[in-house]
Amino acid sequence: MPQLLGQCLERLDGDLHKYLQSKGYSTGDYAKPSITGLSVFGQPPGQVVKLWDLFLSHGLHLNVLTVVSRIWLGRDIIMSGKE
Asked: What is the model's pTM?
């Protein structure tokens, strides 16, 4: 799944994908915890239940798109190098 996430991120925002690669991050480094944890990390419990309802009703592949969207929403912070 991390490879699929990398492909999605590259198509959505090639500059961000190249930036992360240039810093030495592989897709597995920044995406594996969210993908394997089904996006439970950093979410309020009520939101996790809603996400899981979505995943179970429409497919677990949406977890990849959810992680890509979270990375893309944090693009400005990531690209600025601030934490």
From this structure: 0.81
